[in-house]
Design goal:
heterodimer, A: 99 residues, alpha/beta, Transcription Regulator spoIIAA, five-stranded mixed β-sheet, 3 helices, B: 680 residues, alpha+beta, Arp2/3 complex 21 kDa subunit ARPC3, Beta-Lactamase, Phosphatase 2c, domain 1, 3 domains, rod-shaped
Chain lengths: 99, 680
């Protein structure tokens, strides 16, 4: 189960993700990002209600990060300890801006 | 005339205003029973008022009473229409019978007003399906209702057609038009207020036009043409026959006048509708209309010019058909029938047959439109419903519309197509399945399966890989770098299935070839990263742990690119998580700086590496297996050999997850450093 809430204000996009971001649900997030990311300069992922992220989910965050490296900033915030640990273990904490 | 139009417009406008007020009152709210009753009564009262405030026109009183029940029924609630119709109609009958209000038409008026409520109910429910009629249909409804009204005037006064004709010819046009316009304008305004308005004259996109509407449009055009041509045809016939009757009358009466005059009858008798005259050469009327007075010169001259011929002219100033012949050389006999007299019957007939045609064809039109809806459109909707279920993936849906041969064969065709499609899908699935089984075999055989090395007893090694789908993105690997050193690799590609498997093969090949060609784990990971970053459009990445053990010394050089922490057990101690230094997973970013480290292994020490499929295995409550449970299980079987330990973990995970689906690939690699390698 995955719920995606997006709020777009001008070139600021905030995406709040709720549930499990895994192989089955990652494509949903990928679609949302592909639709919305054009012209965005500030992208924020609010992971407050994210229970779990798998490598497929990390892949979506990674590709967003790569796009945002070209057109602005990306921030990942409110990650739970479990999610934070996954970022640490996979080394993604080095490339994401985590708040 | 102008004053009549202004007054009728005013009354009609009042109706429109009432409709708008009621619309605002019921807007956005459910129309309760109470409200239906109120609407019925309000429109009923408006009908009563319009009876009593009728408008004087050519000595007749005209009104738009029927708008009340029609508006209540068509725009609000069918029940309210019936109530309004009964109130307006019954009151009209009472007022006509007991209070002498236009009693001549009381039956026609009260019947048509009562019926208007029921007609509105039937149309609203069956034809408009509870929606508001469009302005066009609203006009049509109002106009046809008044046509019915007028027709009833005729049939209730069969014995007095002249009066009925007079009433109808005066009242029908304004009443038909104003009732139609009142409903039509109401419909337009309500549509605008409800935001449903669209310009009916805007060019129609054929794709958006419903089939029923298209059908109705053509049906309407054809019906109109039939009514009009039928009307014209009978009008022509009637004209002909009126002319013949007129000629016969004139002939017959001129003979009668001559005969009676010859007998010197002072009182000459002719038929009721005929004028006659016996005129001398001095234009003086000897007998007949205006006896003793001289006929105007112009009329007299025309008579003398058209002797023995029936002609159209004026007789005593009135338009008439005239026949004159000589009685003797100084005296002429004239008979004439006024045009009104000749044609009134034809006109009454034209009105009556016109009205009855309109009513008949309206009934046919509504019935056909309704039947087309029932037989064709509803069935098409049923088929579409089934089709949308099918396109949403329910291939077991069967279309069962069999009400006509066309629909039965369409249903059969669709069912057959779906069946064929199912066959193809099954065949394709089977093919994919076979290919996946093949892929699985290839992938499994690409991982080393032999865990014992001849003449090598310095270590014990075991590994398993269990993909979640047919093929996976995890892999393990082990191989000799040179005669002294063995490399252990475990890795996890993001995602699962074929894409992950392909990326896994690339990763595995790259790591092995860079390892064998020499270099530290740091260099191996850096080069592998570089290779994998090339042409990585799918933006996949792979987490890798690599350890290269020098079997002579037990020194293990390691590097971890975003992979799970390894588990280490020193001697007889517990298995423990070794929180090593991490760098980013490979292929994520072009430049990666890994953080190599070394572990000194003593004989009996063990290494256990795994992918996230182990700790992140979930049960049906979505609880994770977790590293804690993994360590507990490992420690509970620490007396067993590493070869026997791995199946214990698999078993423990299987037990934990119960019926839940295996979610991620599960891969493990265990290694025990048994004793140092000694050459010689």
């Amino acid at each position: 189960m995955l719920n995606i809430n997006k709020v777009k204000e001008g070139s600021k996009l905030t995406i709040a993700i709720e549930g499990r971001l895994d192989t089955t649900t990652a494509p949903q997030l990928e679609n949302v990002i592909n639709e919305e990311i054009e012209g965005v300069t500030d992208l924020t992922f609010d992971l407050k209600a994210l229970d779990y992220i798998s490598s497929a989910g990390l892949r979506v965050l990674l590709s967003s990060q790569k796009i945002m490296n070209k057109q602005g900033n990306m921030v990942v915030k409110n990650s739970s300890e479990e999610v934070l640990e996954i970022f640490e273990v996979t080394g993604f904490s080095d490339i994401f801006t985590i708040e | 005339m102008v004053s009549m139009i202004l007054k009728m417009s005013g009354v009609t406008l009042l109706y429109v205003l009432l409709t708008i007020v009621v619309w605002f009152w019921t807007k956005d709210k459910e129309i309760t029973r109470f409200k239906k009753l109120v609407i019925g009564i309000v429109f009923g009262i408006s009908s009563v008022l319009s009876t009593h405030f009728g408008i004087q026109y050519e000595k007749m009183i005209i009104n738009v009473r029927d708008i009340g029940p029609l508006a209540a029924g068509l725009f609000f609630s069918p029940g309210a229409g019936v109530i309004a119709g009964l109130i307006g109609g019954i009151e009209r009958y009472i007022a006509g019978t007991y209070f002498g209000v236009s009693s001549y038409t009381r039956i026609a008026c009260s019947i048509s007003t009562c019926l208007a409520g029921f007609v509105a109910m039937g149309m609203k429910i069956k034809v408009f399906k509870g929606k508001k009629p469009s302005p066009f249909y609203a006009f049509f409804m109002g106009a046809v209702m008044e046509v019915f009204h007028m027709y009833v005037v005729f049939i209730t006064h069969r014995d007095d057609m002249r009066m009925a004709f007079l009433v109808v010819s005066t009242c029908s046009i304004p009443m038909i038009i104003f009732t139609g316009i009142g409903l039509s304008v109401s419909s337009i305004i309500l549509q605008v207020l409800a935001g449903e308005w669209h310009n009916p004259f805007a060019p129609n996109d054929e794709e958006k036009e419903p089939l029923s509407q298209k059908f109705q449009k053509w049906l309407f055009i054809i019906t109109s043409i039939v009514i009009l041509s039928n009307f014209l045809f009978s009008f022509l016939i009637q004209t002909q026959s009126a002319m013949q009757d007129c000629e016969t009358m004139l002939d017959k009466n001129v003979d009668a006048v001559r005969a009676q005059y010859e007998y010197d009858d002072y009182t000459i008798k002719v038929d009721n509708s005929v004028w006659f005259g016996i005129i001398d050469s001095d234009r003086r009327i000897i007998r007949g209309k205006n006896q003793g007075i001289k006929l105007p010169v112009a009329e007299f001259q025309r008579l003398t010019k058209n002797m023995n011929n029936i002609f159209r002219g004026t007789y005593w100033g009135e338009k008439a058909f005239i026949y004159a012949e000589w009685y003797d050389k100084d005296t002429m006999i004239v008979t004439a029938i006024s045009e009104v007299e000749v044609y009134w019957h034809r006109d009454a007939d034209a009105y009556e047959s016109g009205f009855s045609n309109i009513l008949l064809f309206t009934v046919i039109y509504v019935l056909i439109a309704y039947l087309v809806n029932q037989i064709v459109v509803n069935n098409i909707h049923l088929i579409n419903e089934s089709l949308s279920k099918i396109t949403n993936g329910n291939l077991n849906e069967v279309v069962t519309v069999r009400t006509s041969s066309e629909f039965a064969s369409l249903s059969d065709d669709i069912n057959q197509t779906v069946l064929t499609l199912k066959g193809y899908i099954a065949a394709a699935e089977k093919k994919i399945e076979q290919e996946l089984i093949l892929a699985r075999t290839i992938q499994a055989s690409s991982l080393p399966q032999v865990f014992s090395f001849p003449d090598r007893d310095e270590f014990e090694l075991f590994a398993t890989m269990k993909p979640a789908k047919e093929v996976g993105g995890d892999f393990y690997d082990f191989f000799f770098v040179d005669i002294n050193r063995i490399a252990l690799v475990i890795a996890d590609v993001s995602g699962k299935g074929i894409p992950a498997a392909l990326f896994m093969m690339r990763s595995k090949t790259a790591i092995r070839s860079f390892t064998v060609s020499g270099g530290t784990p740091e260099e191996i990971l850096a080069k592998t990263n570089e290779t994998l970053c090339e042409g990585n459009e799918a933006e996949m990445f792979v987490t890798v742990w690599i350890g290269i053990i020098d079997l002579t010394t037990g020194l293990m050089q390691c590097a971890n690119a975003g992979h799970e922490y390894p588990v280490i057990r020193h001697g007889d101690g517990d298995y423990e998580l070794f929180k090593d230094k991490h760098s980013l997973a490979l292929a994520a970013m072009p430049v990666v700086k890994s953080k190599p480290y070394e572990i000194q292994l003593q004989p009996g020490d063990r290494i256990f590496v795994y992918t996230d499929g182990v700790p992140e295995a979930i049960n049906k409550d979505e609880k994770q297996y977790g590293t804690e449970r993994m360590l507990q299980t490992l420690n509970s079987v620490k007396e067993k050999s590493i070869t026997d330990t791995l199946p214990e973990i698999s078993e423990s995970i299987k037990e934990f997850k119960g019926d839940a689906e295996q979610f991620d690939d599960i891969t493990m690699l265990g290694f025990e450093y048994v004793k140092p390698l000694v050459w010689g």
